[in-house]
Specification:
This protein has nine helices and eight strands. An eight-stranded parallel beta sheet has the order 6-5-4-3-2-1-8-7. The model has no long low-confidence stretch (mean pLDDT 94). It has a single domain, classed as Dihydropteroate synthase-like (TIM Barrel), CATH 3.20.20.20. The radius of gyration is 17 Å and the shape is globular.
Length: 250
């Protein structure tokens, strides 16, 4: 699995280990991620969780501006995790190579950014217009996702970008106040059936579980067994250990 190591320039990320404020922080984080088994970096400057304050795009960009050159200096793929085209455009001009579209590519302006840069695009499923405005999926999640991706890929076709798309079930996002036990059941169902999302002939990308609980480890094991092409990891070393244990003899 190609692993994007998580770098958060937003100070209110739930994972304190991933937070960087200065270029020096970014260098230390990047070195640690590479040593731990990461193949690239995923950088965001605006948190999507309930506890994150939503800031203007100008502030989001100010958090990223000095971090991007540090990550790009490693010569590895760097994705920008944002739902704002203003931020994405500036990030590509500064050297990032992949669009991790936190709005689910639900606007033409984001497709324009992707087409202008002819980049790979991570297209996550969202049950709302952005990660802060989502509803719980009460129907069959895979069927709902397939319908969503059919729409997004029709948009991609208009911009000649289908072949650059990477399918993400969006499990890294969740509606506000969704109890973990319900979210766990939902994620287990999605991960157990994720290969149905290969119907589009496109690679899969998963925001990998990182918390240290038995349920999170169970979910990570299910994911690794199904071998998605890409993962977004806070702790790449743990993912590599799971890969060795589960896939080592295959």
């Amino acid at each position: 699995m190609f692993l994007y190591g998580v770098v958060n320039a937003s100070p209110d990320s739930l994972n304190a280990d991933s937070i960087v404020i200065t270029p020096e922080d970014a260098r230390r984080r990047a070195d640690s991620l590479i040593a731990d088994g990461a193949n690239g970096f995923d950088l965001g400057g605006q948190g999507s969780t309930d506890n994150a304050s939503v800031v203007a795009w100008q502030e989001e960009w100010s958090r990223l501006e000095e971090i991007i050159p540090v990550l790009c200096s490693y010569g590895l793929p760097v994705s920008i995790d944002t739902w704002r085209p203003e931020v994405a455009r500036r990030a590509f001009a500064a050297g990032v190579t992949v669009l991790n579209a936190a709005n689910g590519m639900q606007t033409d302006e984001m497709w324009e950014v992707a087409a202008e840069n002819n980049c790979d695009v991570v297209v996550p499923f969202l049950s709302g217009p952005n990660p802060r405005e989502m509803e719980m999926v009460r129907t069959d999640p895979i069927g709902t996702m397939i319908e969503f991706f059919e729409g997004r890929l029709a948009d991609a076709d208009r911009f000649g970008m289908r072949a650059r798309c990477i399918v993400d079930p969006g499990t890294g996002f969740a509606p506000s106040n969704w109890p973990w036990e319900e979210r766990y059941v939902y994620q287990k169902r999605v991960y157990s059936n994720m290969n149905e999302l290969r119907c589009f002939g496109l690679p899969l990308y998963i925001a990998l579980p990182w918390k240290e609980t038995a349920q999170h480890d169970e979910l990570l094991e299910i994911i690794v067994e199904r071998q998605p092409e890409y993962g977004r990891a806070h702790y790449p070393g743990k993912v590599r250990r799971f890969e060795t244990r589960i896939l080592g003899n295959k």
